Amino acid sequence: MSKIRTHYDNLKVTRNAPDVVIKAAHKALLQLHHPDKATDKVAAERITRIINEAREVLLDPKRRKLHDDWIQEKETNLSNKSSFWQNNTEAASENDDPVETEQQNTVQEKIIGKYMTLSNGTSIDTDTGLMWCRRFVLGQSWEKATVIGDAKAYTWLEAFDAVQAFNDQGGYLNYTDWRLPNLNELKSLLDKHIGNKEKGIYFIDQRVFPESPNWLWSSTRYAGYGGGAWFVSFKNGEAFNEDSNIARAIRLVRNNS
């Protein structure tokens, strides 16, 4: 059966994607194809119009229902040339190749557990809305769908300087508001269902965060006697406070709102 093109395809999301995933996918694609950054501004403007239309339709319950009905009808009977969606589906049918015109730069998405993982090396937690540099920590890089290099360790104060330098040098994916996660944000990565101390299985979904280090600093200072700061052990599945002069790895996060 011939494949029809839908607003879901244009945003690279599944047909049951929740609003938070749709918004995140739109934002990622908009950043990638922004006309101000493109060499082919005409193509970029066309793609931007397509993904904007897709977002508007899929975030409107009534228009999304109409679109779903249109998809069902098309897939049930491709020979039916019904045009009841004609006024609302330019982005879904225009030349059958929107966004794919720059396929080599297209961000692919996949839902893994509570995360929308993106092929550009980030992941969005659909519970919290946070965007993580999912595939790597500082010292590593994400190249050809693989983690490259070794995690670098920093003292707690050095970690803040490293993040500032990272943003000052251009950040990642043109975002320059990356930061250290606070303790609760970092603990949200703990997965009690996956981890097993006896078997040496880390308490983090390594399909989403491969090659994740054992210990990661949070941005939260320890308020008790002796000072220090909080870190999370993904080997033990717990948070601990420690002397801030100890070196730990860091994973970056940003608000995706």
Description:
There is one protein chain. With 257 residues, this protein is of the alpha+beta class. The chain has two domains: 7-107, DnaJ domain (Helix Hairpins); 136-255, Mannose-Binding Protein A, Chain A (Roll), CATH 3.10.100. The protein is 29% helix and 16% strand. It contains seven helices and ten strands. The protein has helices spanning 7-11, 19-32, 41-58, 61-76, 90-93, 156-168, 183-187, and strands at 109-112, 115-118, 123-125, 130-132, 141-143, 146-148, 215-221, 229-233, 238-242, 253-255. A five-stranded antiparallel sheet has the order 1-2-3-4-10, covered by helices on one side. The protein has a three-stranded antiparallel sheet with strand order 7-8-9. Strand 5 and strand 6 form a beta hairpin. Helix 2 (19-32) runs antiparallel to helix 3 (41-58). Residues 80-105 have low confidence and may be disordered.
Low-confidence stretches: 80-105
Radius of gyration over alpha carbons? 21 Å
* Total domain units: 2
- For the terminal residues, how far apart are their CA atoms? 39 Å
Specify the overall morphology.
elongated
* Order of H and E elements: HHHHHEEEEEEHHEEEE
Look at the structure and give the CATH class of the largest domain: Alpha Beta
Fill in the CATH topology of the largest domain.
Mannose-Binding Protein A, Chain A
The percentage of residues in β strands lies in 15-25%
On the 0 to 100 scale, the average pLDDT is 81
Fraction of residues in helices? 25-40%
User: What structural class should be given to the helix and strand makeup?
Assistant: alpha+beta
Number of helices: 7
The largest sheet has its strands arranged as 1-2-3-4-10
For the secondary structure, the number of strands is 10
CATH architecture of the largest domain: Roll
Largest sheet: 5 strands, antiparallel
